[in-house]
């Protein structure tokens, strides 16, 4: 007999979803939601990209609804790896890249975690502190040992590069290192190109395996090549590596759950073997991925005029986020705050790690109807020209 009252306990609420629930329950017409991890326009409305609508028209009624292969839609995979590694990347020309379509970024990471458990036995994954909270769930459920390395320095609200290098210097050979390719979540703090180069050389020397989670290509700086620069530095240095791609943010395909897991291998034969084993993992998990999102991305990346229009649209989204950072910092200064807020514009991507305390976050919610996660992470997509002055005033009040 199944006895839920004794055998199954209520799972804890997801902290981000809890923020949204509190926001929705608030009756203040001026309430602000800074917890949502999805792009919003200056009216706080969700956005469907024009290129997505154009691609929908092109594929409508022209494709069947049959199962995709286990590895997904091959043209989509091919275009995805070119977007990540570069059109002329040597690893692609050599046929050394194993790639499968995945269930967005979360699915990519989960596939890799399971592959790691099976084929990198005993290896631990080093995860930056802090990181996207779901990373811990993903590797925990795959029963992969997790270790952390220093990443964020609260005193400077920037990168703890010395701590990072020291911790990875002490990592065991064969360990996997989880790296955010750009727009680190939740801090918005990325290494400089010079720091990426130094880190690459250390990891090559220590035989550490880089696994890049790239959820924001193009969305961080507005330039897809620039946002994948870290991966390309590692490739130039001769690393084999893994990469998780998501099209949730940069194409607004959140609900399509469309992503790609790729692994650069030592040779073509190894690439083929690795891809076959990733497919074996996927077969038991979900059998095969959905078709619609793959066709959309393939059409956008494979049609030159639509692809250029996408570059323009994703640049526009990135620039709005950058503009909101400048406006927020300017308004904080005008509010009379004596605190240092330069990190607001020095960080990059959707999220700003504000540096405020959990108690100050609680005060923002209680006294000002402004909602964010308790670690002080602001979703800059929730900041608009209509609410930025009120947000700055409230931040000044709770931090004074």
From TrEMBL:
CDD domains: AAT_like. Its cofactor is pyridoxal 5'-phosphate. It comes from the Eukaryota. The keyword Transferase applies. Belongs to the class-I pyridoxal-phosphate-dependent aminotransferase family. This is Aspartate aminotransferase. One of its GO terms (molecular function) is pyridoxal phosphate binding. The keyword Transcription does not apply. Homodimer. Pfam families: Aminotran_1_2 (PF00155). InterPro entries: Aminotransferase_I/II_large, Asp_trans, NHTrfase_class1_PyrdxlP-BS, PyrdxlP-dep_Trfase, PyrdxlP-dep_Trfase_major, PyrdxlP-dep_Trfase_small. Keywords: Aminotransferase, Pyridoxal phosphate, Transferase. It catalyses: L-aspartate + 2-oxoglutarate = oxaloacetate + L-glutamate. It comes from Apatococcus fuscideae.
């Amino acid at each position: 007999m199944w006895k839920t009252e004794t055998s199954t306990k209520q799972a804890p609420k997801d902290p981000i979803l809890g923020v949204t629930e509190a926001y929705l329950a608030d009756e203040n017409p001026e309430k602000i939601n800074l917890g949502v991890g999805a792009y919003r326009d200056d009216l706080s409305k969700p956005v469907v990209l024009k290129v997505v609508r154009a691609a929908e028209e092109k594929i409508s009624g022209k494709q069947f609804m049959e199962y995709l292969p286990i590895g997904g839609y091959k043209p989509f995979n091919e275009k995805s790896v070119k977007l990540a590694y570069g059109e002329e990347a040597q690893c692609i020309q050599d046929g050394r890249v194993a790639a499968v379509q995945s269930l967005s970024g979360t699915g990519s990471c989960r596939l890799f975690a399971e592959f790691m458990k099976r084929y990198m036995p005993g290896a631990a994954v080093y995860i930056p502190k802090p990181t996207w909270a779901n990373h811990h769930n993903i590797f925990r459920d795959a029963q992969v040992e997790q270790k952390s390395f220093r990443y964020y320095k609260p005193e400077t609200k920037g990168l703890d590069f010395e701590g990072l290098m020291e911790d990875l210097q002490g990592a065991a050979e064969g360990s996997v290192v989880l790296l955010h390719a750009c727009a680190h979540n939740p801090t918005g703090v990325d290494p400089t190109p010079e720091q990426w180069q130094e880190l690459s050389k250390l990891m090559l020397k220590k035989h550490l395996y880089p696994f890049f989670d790239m959820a924001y290509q193009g969305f961080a700086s507005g330039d897809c090549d620039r946002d994948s620069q870290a991966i390309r530095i590692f490739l130039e240095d001769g690393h084999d590596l893994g990469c998780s791609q998501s099209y949730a943010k940069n194409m607004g395909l959140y609900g399509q759950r469309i992503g790609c897991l790729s692994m650069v291998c030592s040779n073509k034969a190894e690439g083929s073997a690795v891809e076959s084993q990733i497919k074996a993992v996927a077969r038991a998990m979900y059998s095969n991925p959905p078709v619609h999102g793959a066709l959309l991305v393939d059409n956008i990346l494979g049609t030159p005029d639509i692809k250029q229009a996408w570059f323009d649209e994703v640049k526009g989204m990135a620039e709005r986020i950058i503009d909101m950072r400048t406006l927020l910092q300017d308004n904080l200064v005008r509010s009379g705050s004596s605190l240092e807020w330069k990190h607001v514009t020095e960080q990059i991507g959707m999220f700003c790690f504000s540096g405020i305390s959990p108690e100050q976050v609680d005060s923002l919610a209680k006294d000002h109807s402004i909602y964010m996660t308790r670690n002080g992470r602001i979703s800059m997509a929730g900041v608009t020209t209509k609410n930025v002055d009120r947000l700055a005033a409230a931040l000044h009040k709770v931090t004074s």
